[in-house]
Design goal:
Chain B: Keywords: Cell membrane, Membrane, Transmembrane, Transmembrane helix. The structure holds 2 protein chains of 2 kinds. Chain A is built from 10 helices and 10 strands. Chain A is α/β, with parallel strands linked by helices. Chain B is mostly helical. Chain B has one domain. In chain B, α2 packs across α9, α7 crosses α9 and α10 packs across α11. The relative contact order of chain B is 0.18. Classes of the chains: A alpha/beta, B mainly alpha.
């Protein structure tokens, strides 16, 4: 569904990602893992057009999308749940969701509100509350709900577990799995490597702007280097 | 009543109206969170276009004023494309530079009459006076013809302002207004949600310029004379201060700001030399204690809640 090859993005003279290749097959969950500063968020922002990559190809559903404006990429069916959630704090929960459907002109938006509320009942309870007054976990749910309102074929999640309590993290990962089972392909960026590898089909390990390892998620999880660097040593196991 | 309607008070009321319209223009540019200091430049373009059209080309005023606005808006789109890639303080400096460029161009062009400015612009008041006297009316129950025509000008300005307020309120509830609000709240989130931020930022910028241009055209036809100094740096700051004092959350904010800041120097006239000091102190106090401006969304919510409870009891 998404084929990235040779993608490079720089901030000024500093090259943050250096020619990476990633394949996201339709219907799968692909995890992109790596330490701080590895270039994970840069990769996500480059994919949706928020950053302009210098080189490489991004093929989404067979179409080259590198250099397209973000709103056009959203129209094609790729939505990003940004790192840190970026809730519109001054707008209500309902308004935040409405903004997610901004580009849509079809008549099924109402149906999708119901779908989101069914998935996240807490959002329905709080739909008139301002986005900024929600807790971290609720804001993350709202951010995911908002991205789903655009009816994406591919959902990009940038660190959905950031700053959340372990129980809430488990909830969020369950939701991600459900969304995937209902037919949405997912590209996930995570620092919570254990969880990310558990739900993913494929995994890519990013280190200082380069893909150093990739393969089926369970194989990546067994790799001694990954165990050492991200999973607390070989003894910890998975 | 006749004493209240003296020429001095009427003139101040007219200035309040024009400044309130300028307040709406800065509100519109600020509604996408862009700090533009170019509104005096757009006002200048509007004023000069309009004055040249009426004085030199003999166009009627009611056509020239909208055309002035359109000219300002057109220029804003041209400079908006490169300028709106900038944000925050950088955009402010770029647009400030733009205002200076306009001033220097106006100062050096022949058609704008350089530093001398354009004088002999037919004022709206005298135009209306002429129309009235052509109907053979010169006395109106104790009011002079001059008073009546200035009053009519005031009514026209009030209608323009009322229309603009109505327009802004409708805009806020529309799709476009939602996009503006989202961009103001979080530009990268808005972009990620699929809002064409460039388009909406440019639209807000051009709308602000259009209204500034119209205000410029109006002011040219109210004061008989315009010169490059009328639209210099201090004018820009003044327009921005309307929003700083009144608040830029709601359209009524900059209008209240314009009202207060236009009346204040007149009220303080008795304090003579201390006038500007008091003016400055007021603004510093405002920024320290109420940085969001006099009227914010919370203010409205607070009073609505209070009045709502009051009526129930």
């Amino acid at each position: 569904m998404l084929n990235i090859s040779g993608l490079s993005t720089s901030y000024g003279s500093i090259q943050a990602i250096k020619g990476i290749d990633i394949d996201v097959p339709e219907g799968s969950i692909v995890s992109l893992i790596g330490a701080n500063g590895a270039g994970k968020t840069t990769t996500m922002k480059s994919l949706v057009g928020l950053l302009k990559p210098q080189a490489g190809e991004i093929k989404f559903l067979g179409q080259e999308i590198r250099g397209l404006a973000p709103h056009k990429i959203v129209n094609l069916g790729m939505s990003l749940v940004p790192e840190g959630r970026n809730i519109l704090a001054g707008m209500t929960v309902l308004e935040n969701l409405e903004m997610g459907a901004y580009q849509r002109k079809d008549k099924e938006v109402q149906k999708d509100f119901e779908k989101v509320f069914k998935r996240f009942p807490i959002l329905e309870e709080r739909k008139q509350q301002l986005g900024g007054t929600l807790s971290g976990g609720q804001q993350q749910m709202l951010a995911i709900g908002r991205a789903l309102m655009a009816r994406p074929k591919l959902l990009l999640l940038d660190e959905p577990s950031m700053g959340l309590a372990p129980l809430v993290v488990a909830d969020i990962f369950n939701v991600i799995r459900e969304i995937n089972q209902e037919g949405t392909t997912i590209l996930l960026v995570e620092q919570n490597v254990r969880q990310a590898l558990k739900i993913a089909n494929y995994a890519y390990v990013l280190e200082t702007g380069k893909i150093v390892l990739h393969g089926k998620a369970d194989e990546v999880a067994k790799n001694p280097r990954v165990m050492e660097a991200y999973l607390g040593g070989a003894k910890a196991g998975v | 009543m006749a004493i209240l309607l003296n020429q001095y008070y009427l003139q101040i009321a007219v200035f309040v109206m024009v400044n309130a319209i300028l307040g709406v223009s800065i509100y519109l540019t600020l509604s996408t969170g862009q700090l533009s200091l170019g509104n005096a430049g757009f006002m200048s373009i509007g004023a000069y276009t309009c004055a040249i059209l009426t004085v030199k080309a003999g166009l009627p005023v009611y056509l020239a004023i909208p055309l002035g606005g359109v000219a300002a808006s057109f220029i804003s789109i041209i400079i908006g494309f490169p300028a709106l890639r900038l944000t925050g303080i950088y955009l402010a400096i770029a647009t400030l530079g733009f205002g200076e460029v306009v001033r220097v161009i106006v100062l050096n062009l022949k058609i704008t009459n350089g530093a001398l400015g354009i004088s002999g612009i037919p004022t709206l008041g005298t135009k209306i006076g002429k129309i009235l006297s052509s109907f053979g009316m010169s006395k109106f129950g104790g009011f002079s013809a001059q008073q009546v025509s200035t009053l009519l000008v005031l009514v026209i300005l009030l209608l323009v302002l009322a229309f603009l307020i109505f327009f802004c309120i409708r805009l806020n509830r529309s799709r476009v207004g939602r996009a503006f609000a989202a961009i103001k709240a979080d530009e990268s989130a808005a972009e990620a949600m699929g809002i064409n931020t460039t388009y909406y930022k440019l639209l807000a910028f051009a709308l602000g310029a259009l209204i500034a241009g119209i205000a410029g055209g109006l002011s040219a036809h109210l004061t008989f004379f315009i010169g490059p100094k009328d639209f210099a740096y201090h004018r820009t700051v003044e327009i921005l201060l309307y929003a700083v004092l009144g608040g830029s959350d709601l359209v009524i904010g900059p209008i209240v700001g314009a009202l207060i800041l236009t009346l204040l120097p007149e009220v303080l006239r008795s304090a003579s030399n201390y006038r500007l000091m008091i003016y400055g102190a007021l603004l510093v106090t405002m920024m320290a204690f109420r940085p969001q401006g006099l009227i914010s969304e919370e203010t409205v919510r607070y009073w609505k809640g209070k009045l709502g409870r009051g009526s129930k009891q």
